[in-house]
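Q: What residues go here?
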């Protein structure tokens, strides 16, 4: 026990008992628990949680579509950032609930774990496993109004911060059925209440692909010219794969589609190979993106590897003395969607990111084993094109293994043989440690002198490094710029990467605030995304934010991190037209003295630092392919579309 811990004074057992009484036990009634701990239900109160509210309501409409009662869903972002979601489903029941004694629509919106997805006959397949969707949205909204079109009538009820404020009343007649929900997120709960049209568009495009034949309309009324997108794909997940591969060079024009069913369980898989070295596989269960995979993804990976090895042996692509193809060989350049539908999905927690139903593994394995094998037999030209690519991938993997073993023999991958340029920290607990990957020896020198040597390690890099988007992993092991990063982090790379062995729980990219610095950041981000993705998924990757300006008047020194902050400081200080003010724009980190770099960029309590997060793997994959891939046209298109957002670009 440390000295600091010894200084803590603990009360006696008797004193503790007196302080812990019946009055300390709180009972949160109704939806108070949701408002007290919103993160338990929607993940966070950031913009991610904000958008999750919309997804919960739309998911209910999608469940209506899965039940065969709905084919059109409309989502509208209003000028005040309130949201309306309308569907043409059956409409939420409005009769008095037998057990609760209030209208059923009110039960759905005011009582947790109340819904039609707990064994009733309303839904055979549903994503809303826990029945908390509508009630949680209601609890976290400034207000929510629901209109139900049912029985030739329009019913209306209003709630405020989860509490019912009007009785369910009939406000009109209707010749169709459905539910219209309008809500406004509560600013008392959310850090930000402005919705992103692009974020919602990405999500709903995904939903439209996964539910072929369902039309989702997204409209944004906030702009002078309202934006509207109609998302409708008859081809379902086959169209999804075509869309994901639209900027790639497919090895075969036809998307391979296989499907199978057992009792109430259904699995469909669409897949197509392209000439890239990137695997782009996404799995879903009841329309929910299972980011962490699960049994259906395991079944797919196991079966596809076996199918290709069996086919290779049968048709002599693999000789008697050849090793079997590994899973990563078979999946290189593969774009695939695995979508399963089942009556009682078992997810890990409310975030539903991993499927646990064991039976889905065997169903997916059987579908792939039977139907993919038949496809390859019937399409030998496609099989040959794919197999040639798999064999190339296998040779690259073997080359990578040889390079890795060569480095390991020399002690290069062991923690006892760290890179020569690394200035390590003294603390060995990864939870306390952070490493700055710094652009250039000059900035690296300042960082080494200015750092907290106990918890901060410095690894300077020099020059441009390998663009891994354009190469296989065997080249990574022999790259003199990337190898020090791999060795310093201590968790290996690619399929061997083990995040539990990471030597630092903060990996900070620190580069100049100019074009070259942006390029360095992008190259490193590409590397981490492609070969160390858990580093991002677990929240260990950060971007340092060095200041752009130094403002000096007399002996007062201030720093500004962008033009807006510079203008704000000058206005607040009354220095706007003061000739005694000296403004220096930093050209690079190397210009800063060690103490200056520490105070502005590295001091844990004063610095600005951005955590790199992964909201949408498919969208991130596309951005990296566009910006860092071989094709020029997608990169030009991206630049043309986004040039208006560029700031502080040095020419």
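A:
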């Amino acid at each position: 026990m440390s000295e600091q811990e010894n200084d803590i004074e603990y009360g006696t057992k008797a004193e503790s008992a007196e302080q812990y009484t019946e009055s300390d036990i709180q009972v949160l009634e109704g939806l108070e628990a949701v408002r007290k701990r919103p993160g338990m239900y929607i993940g966070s109160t950031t913009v991610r949680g904000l958008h999750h509210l919309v997804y919960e309501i739309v998911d209910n409409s999608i469940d209506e579509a899965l039940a065969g009662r709905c084919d059109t869903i409309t989502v509208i972002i209003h000028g005040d950032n309130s949201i309306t979601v309308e569907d043409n489903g059956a409409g939420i029941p409005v009769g008095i609930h037998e057990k609760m004694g209030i209208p059923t629509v009110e039960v759905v919106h005011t009582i947790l774990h109340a819904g039609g997805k707990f064994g009733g006959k309303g839904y055979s397949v549903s994503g809303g496993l826990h029945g908390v969707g509508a009630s949680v949205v209601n609890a976290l909204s400034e207000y929510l109004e629901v209109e139900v079109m049912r029985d030739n009538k329009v019913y209306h009820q209003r709630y405020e911060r989860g509490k019912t404020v009007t009785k369910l009343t009939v406000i009109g007649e209707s010749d169709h059925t459905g539910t219209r929900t309008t809500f406004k997120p509560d600013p008392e709960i959310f850090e930000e209440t402005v919705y992103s049209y692009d974020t919602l568009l990405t999500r709903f495009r995904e939903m439209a692909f996964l539910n072929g034949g369902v039309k989702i309309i997204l409209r944004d009324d906030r702009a002078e010219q309202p934006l509207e997108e109609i998302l409708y794909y008859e081809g379902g997940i086959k169209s999804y794969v075509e869309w994901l591969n639209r900027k790639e060079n497919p090895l075969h024009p036809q998307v391979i589609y296989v499907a199978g069913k057992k009792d109430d369980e259904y699995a469909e898989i669409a897949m197509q190979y392209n000439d890239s070295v990137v695997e782009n596989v996404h799995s879903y269960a009841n329309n929910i993106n299972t980011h962490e995979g699960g049994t259906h993804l395991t079944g797919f990976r196991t079966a596809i590897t076996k199918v290709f090895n069996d086919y290779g042996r049968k048709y002599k692509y693999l000789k008697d003395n050849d090793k079997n193809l590994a899973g990563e060989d078979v999946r290189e350049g593969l774009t695939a969607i695995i979508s399963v539908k089942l009556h009682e999905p078992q997810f890990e927690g409310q975030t539903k990111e991993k499927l646990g139903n064991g039976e889905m593994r065997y169903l997916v394995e059987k579908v792939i084993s039977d139907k993919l094998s038949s496809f390859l037999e019937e399409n030998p030209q496609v099989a040959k094109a794919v197999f040639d690519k798999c064999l190339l991938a296998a040779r690259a993997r073997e080359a990578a293994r040889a390079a890795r073993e060569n480095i390991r023999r020399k002690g290069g991958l062991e923690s006892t043989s760290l890179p020569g340029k690394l200035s390590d920290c003294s603390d060995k607990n990864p939870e306390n440690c952070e490493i700055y990957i710094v652009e250039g020896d000059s900035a690296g020198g300042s960082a080494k002198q200015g750092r907290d040597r106990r918890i901060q390690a410095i690894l300077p890099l020099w020059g441009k490094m390998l663009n891994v988007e354009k190469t296989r992993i065997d080249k990574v092991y022999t790259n003199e710029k990337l190898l020090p990063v791999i060795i310093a982090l201590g968790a290996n790379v690619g399929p061997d990467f083990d995040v539990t062995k990471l030597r630092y729980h903060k990996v900070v990219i620190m580069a100049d605030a100019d074009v070259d610095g942006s390029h360095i950041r992008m190259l490193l981000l590409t590397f981490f995304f492609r070969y160390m993705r858990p580093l991002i998924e677990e929240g260990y990757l950060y971007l340092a934010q060095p200041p752009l300006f130094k403002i000096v008047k007399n002996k007062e020194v201030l720093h500004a991190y962008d033009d807006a902050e510079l203008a704000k400081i000058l206005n607040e200080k009354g220095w706007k037209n003061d000739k005694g003010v000296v403004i220096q724009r930093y050209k690079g980190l190397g210009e800063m003295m060690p103490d200056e770099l520490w105070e502005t960029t590295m001091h844990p309590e004063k610095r600005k630092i951005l955590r790199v997060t992964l909201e949408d793997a498919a969208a991130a994959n596309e951005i990296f392919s566009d910006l860092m891939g071989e094709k020029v046209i997608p990169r030009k298109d991206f630049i043309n579309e986004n040039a208006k957002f560029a700031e502080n670009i040095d020419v």
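A: Context that may help when evaluating the design: The longest strand covers residues 141-150. The mean pLDDT is 86.
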